[in-house]
TrEMBL record:
GO CC terms in record: cytosol
EC number: 3.6.4.13
InterPro entries listed in its UniProt record: DEAD/DEAH_box_helicase_dom, DEAD_box_RNA_helicase, Helicase_ATP-bd, P-loop_NTPase, RNA-helicase_DEAD-box_CS, RNA_helicase_DEAD_Q_motif
Domain annotation Helicase ATP-binding: ranges: 33-207
EC top class, as a word: hydrolase
Short motif Q motif, span: 2-30
Alphabetical keyword list: ATP-binding, Helicase, Hydrolase, Nucleotide-binding
Name of the protein this chain belongs to: RNA helicase
Organism of origin: Aldrovandia affinis
Domain DEAD-box RNA helicase Q positions: 2-30
Cross-referenced SUPFAM superfamilies: P-loop containing nucleoside triphosphate hydrolases (SSF52540)
Highest taxon, organism lineage: Eukaryota
A single GO molecular function term of this UniProt record: RNA helicase activity
């Protein structure tokens, strides 16, 4: 396995990686970073947790450091949460550059976002619907000079009500220059993704994880099939068991709606678990 210097990354980026405990490249990084630095479009089929975010963040930051301006890079994410995680990696790894980023997702004030966009951040991380709304309604910013268009978790982007996404993507593709580099990362390679590849990419470098399973080996995944009315009782029991077996513990629970998230938090607090809800 190679190391970061042999992939062509600059020393300052390697030092930033070290600070984050990133010492050796993962396979997706080892394969995709040199191709991206070489100026190629890239289609990566990578597992969640494989280090795919850093596989695009690192080469983009390197290119940005050579010619810093805004807006340099646009990343599309299927969810707000992923958008925040991506922006965080840009922020931490790009700290020595004084990187300015802007997150454009639903549920936030349009005017404030438009103002931030007009300040020409280096990197914009956006959900497609909200960004397309801005492009349709605002003339305070443009994306005519971006060097990188990145679609992260592209399979999930495409899942989200196809017509809306297609319309939003059309608006976004019209706003960005043809002479960009397009990077597309996805856990699965679907037919629609192949279509997207043909409309948005130019002979991309293709990399696919050899493993059939799309999650990391260390992940222990289980499900419990229960009647609806005893679901919460099972959950409380599981948390109690976890608390009894671990001194230092934290658990993340995902719910389908904001309301369910808040109701669950209230219930867990009734059982004296130190719970907070995070809904946006
Ligand atoms: P991702 O697949 O992008 O969601 O990354 C999952 C996690 O792996 C993130 O917390 C990264 O900080 C971390 N990570 C990324 N690259 C490496 C690496 N080469 N070595 C160790 N950890 C890494």
């Amino acid at each position: 396995m190679s190391d970061f210097p042999s992939l062509g990354l600059s020393n300052w980026l390697i030092q930033q990686c070290k600070q984050m405990g990133i010492n050796k490249p993962t396979s997706v990084q080892e394969s995709c970073i040199p191709a991206i630095l070489d100026g190629r479009d890239c289609l990566g089929c990578a597992k969640t947790g494989s280090g795919k975010t850093a596989a695009f963040v690192l080469p983009v930051l390197q290119k940005l450091s050579e010619d810093p301006y805004g807006i340099f890079c646009l990343v599309l994410s299927p969810t707000r949460e992923l958008a925040y995680q991506i922006a965080e990696q840009f922020r931490v790894l790009g700290k020595p550059l004084g990187l300015r980023d802007c997150i454009v997702v639903g549920g936030m004030d349009m005017v404030t976002q438009a103002l931030e966009l007009s300040k020409k951040p280096h990197v914009v991380v956006a959900t497609p619907g909200r960004l397309a709304d801005h492009l349709r309604s605002s003339n305070t910013f443009h994306m005519k000079k971006i060097k990188f268009l990145i679609l992260d978790e592209a399979d999930r982007l495409l899942e989200q009500g196809c017509t809306d996404f297609t319309k939003d993507l059309e608006v976004i593709l019209r706003a960005v220059p043809a002479s960009r580099q397009t990077l597309l990362f996805s856990a699965t390679l679907t037919d629609t993704l192949q279509e997207l590849k043909s409309i948005a990419m130019n002979k991309p470098f293709f990399w696919e994880s050899k493993s059939e399973v799309r999650t990391v080996d260390e992940l222990d995944q289980r499900f419990i099939l229960t009647p609806e009315k005893v679901k919460d009782a099972y959950l409380v029991h599981l948390i109690q068991k976890f608390q009894d077996e671990h001194d230092d513990w934290s658990i993340m629970i995902f719910t389908n709606t904001c309301k369910n998230c808040q109701v669950l938090t209230m219930m867990l607090r009734e059982f004296n678990f130190p719970a907070i809800s995070c809904t946006r």
